[in-house]
């Protein structure tokens, strides 16, 4: 699997989507955490949106990013629980060419170590579509921190024995 790594860091173009019926950019601590974490890691924030938790609006925004030649990774926060308004898995999973089952499994494992059995209600998920990696995290800032523990490594071309970077579409420089 060592063929999936590089010796140098490769900055990625990442879009962040917050899904909430109540948050604004002023109080979106989860989206802000993700923006700060990815830029501190050396990646580029290419877009950030905050929209209502509406299945069709979610699909529309993420579909546009999947089709955008400059977006390599999408990270969403919110809408992965069990309330009536939590639509992220249903909205996004139909867009995947391939699911990344291990992402949700590992997220729930790490979350279990932090929260205990309540993590069974998390429907965090990941997948690939058109060379774009898509990761859907719960809405809490703590959950975004947990998810970033996984993503920081998997979005780093130097991480061994493998990472997602070689599977992402190339962007024009």
TrEMBL record:
- Does this entry carry the keyword Signal? no
Question: What family does the entry list?
Answer: Belongs to the MoaB/Mog family.
Q: Which CDD domains match?
A: MogA_MoaB (cd00886)
**InterPro entries the UniProt entry points to:** MoaB, MoaB/Mog-like_dom_sf, MoaB/Mog_dom, MoaB_proteobac
The family database entries (SUPFAM superfamilies) matched by this protein are listed as: Molybdenum cofactor biosynthesis proteins (SSF53218)
List keywords of the entry alphabetically. Molybdenum cofactor biosynthesis
Q: Which organism is it from?
A: Shewanella corallii
Function text: May be involved in the biosynthesis of molybdopterin.
Q: Keyword Translocase on this protein?
A: no
SMART domains, sorted = MoCF_biosynth
Q: Where is the MoaB/Mog domain?
A: 15-158
> Pathway, according to UniProt?
Cofactor biosynthesis; molybdopterin biosynthesis
Return the Pfam families for the record: MoCF_biosynth
Q: What is this protein called?
A: Molybdenum cofactor biosynthesis protein B
